[in-house]
């Protein structure tokens, strides 16, 4: 995939999202309603095809050629390069504690961790605390919006999809880096995704091969994202089951 | 409906535990005391589960050996009966008791294969118990799983205070009971509601 194509796709995805947002009715705060199901299923199928044709083989090659320690380093480097963006989001959310935590983590890994290829900070209690612009929007009170499946990125919501776009465009490190190495973090990010695809290949294959992969991915994404953001979901189904057990 | 089914299950268990108590077996099984367990006991139960799983993922054994061991852990510490019948959901309403017990057994193997085969992805990882809180008459034991090169993720074990067994696991907010309910429901739909076929297919693996 060429760079221009990729950028064009991201922009298209963004436009599509805005289109969706514009025509979306009042957003559902919880539940699993899927007003764009037809379009989502189409994108899901396209993602699976793309995975089979390109991502999965590339990931296998990447995982087979490079030993785990090297892949870990690529992943650490990519995570470290994303930290300034995470700190920006921490600040936008008014989360000073995490902003300081992540700043010190960035300082440690960029120096002692040799530009981030080693994650030395985790060892001294400065573990990864991720954040993104979707979370910032949530903190600001933006509703989740409808469930959407994005090209490449997969399951998301209108809010989180917009967040991905903003994080991508406004990465402080990319803006600060000199032109020659500007794209290094993005390249590392793509490789680290290949690494994840390789490491979790069994799980991902199961999703992609299963007929209910679409429904399960929707359930998994929404449940885990709501958990991550600390959104209390009135989960009657599960509560009822547990309560029935308690008798 | 689910409420009714739950009562049915708990009635059977009461009868079962009561019968054991009558035989004087209970004294030899402190973990299964009739009295409600404490938060400390719930946490120590999950400590044992976590210790067992840690040793499995770092045992370096073959995948089939890991799956076998995991099935053992699941059978020992979880209320497989509840998890399986919840996954079956309302579809299990009309099942005979023979079908139910066959399903529970097949489900146990299916879960062990489904999740046990993932342990390869967890090699070199570590799970730690973080905290326990009481919610109604159950305990939520929070654990953190640390994998090399990934941010730690939460697994919450839901432990019943009635019998000290865990009745669900929520991985980063994803409930096994809930997702298996969806999965098993879809599998049953694909077999046009034929439970015997589903059982046979689950047994085959």
UniProtKB/TrEMBL annotation, chain A:
User: A Pfam family in this protein?
Assistant: MlaA
Q: Which residues form a coiled coil?
A: none
Annotated PROSITE patterns: PROKAR_LIPOPROTEIN
Q: Does the keyword Signal apply?
A: yes
Enumerate the UniProt keywords alphabetically.
Lipoprotein, Signal
Carries keyword Lipoprotein? Answer: yes
Q: Name one GO cellular component term.
A: membrane
Example GO biological process: intermembrane phospholipid transfer
What InterPro entries does the record tag this protein with? MlaA
Q: Where is the signal peptide?
A: 1-26
- Give the family this protein belongs to, as stated in its UniProt record: Belongs to the MlaA family.
Q: What is this protein called?
A: VacJ family lipoprotein
């Amino acid at each position: 995939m060429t760079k221009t194509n990729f950028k064009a796709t991201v922009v298209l995805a963004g436009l599509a999202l805005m289109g969706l947002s514009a025509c979306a009715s009042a957003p559902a705060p919880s539940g699993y309603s899927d007003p764009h199901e037809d379009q989502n299923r189409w994108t899901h199928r396209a993602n699976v095809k793309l995975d089979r044709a390109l991502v999965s083989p590339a990931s296998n090659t990447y995982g087979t050629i490079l030993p785990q320690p090297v892949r870990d380093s690529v992943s650490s480097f990519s995570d470290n390069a994303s930290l300034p963006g995470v700190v920006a989001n921490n600040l936008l959310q008014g989360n000073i504690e995490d902003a300081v935590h992540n700043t010190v983590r960035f300082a440690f890994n960029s120096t002692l961790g040799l530009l981030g290829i080693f994650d030395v900070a985790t060892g001294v209690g400065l573990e990864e605390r991720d954040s993104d612009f979707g979370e910032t929007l949530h903190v600001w009170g933006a509703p989740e919006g409808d469930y959407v499946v994005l090209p490449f990125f997969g399951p998301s919501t209108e809010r989180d999809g917009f967040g991905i776009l903003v994080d991508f465009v406004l990465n402080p490190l990319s803006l600060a880096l000199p032109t020659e190495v500007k794209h290094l973090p993005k390249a590392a990010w793509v490789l680290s995704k290949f690494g994840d695809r390789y490491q979790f290949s069994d799980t991902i294959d199961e999703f992609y091969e299963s007929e209910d992969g679409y429904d399960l991915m929707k359930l998994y994404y929404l449940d885990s994202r709501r958990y991550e953001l600390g959104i209390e979901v009135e989960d009657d189904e599960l509560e009822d089951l547990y309560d029935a057990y308690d008798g | 409906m689910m409420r009714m089914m739950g009562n049915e299950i708990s009635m059977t268990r009461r009868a079962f535990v009561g019968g054991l108590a009558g035989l004087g077996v209970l004294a030899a099984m402190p973990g299964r005391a009739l009295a409600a367990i404490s938060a400390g006991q719930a946490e120590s139960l999950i400590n044992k589960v976590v210790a067992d799983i840690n040793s499995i993922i770092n045992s370096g054994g073959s995948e089939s050996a890991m799956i076998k061991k995991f099935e053992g852990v699941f059978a020992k510490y979880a209320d497989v009966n509840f998890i399986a019948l919840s996954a079956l959901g309302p579809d299990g309403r009309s099942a005979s008791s023979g079908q139910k017990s066959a399903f529970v057994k097949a489900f146990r193997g299916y879960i062990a294969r489904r999740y046990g085969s993932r342990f390869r992805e967890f090699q070199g990882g570590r799970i730690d118990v973080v905290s326990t809180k009481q919610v109604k008459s159950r305990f939520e034991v929070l654990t953190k799983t640390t994998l090399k090169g990934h941010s730690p993720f939460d697994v919450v074990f839901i432990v019943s205070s009635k019998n000290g067994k865990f009745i669900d696991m929520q991985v980063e907010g994803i409930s096994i009971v809930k997702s298996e309910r969806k999965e098993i429901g879809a599998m049953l739909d694909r077999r046009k509601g034929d439970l015997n076929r589903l059982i046979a297919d689950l047994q085959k693996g």
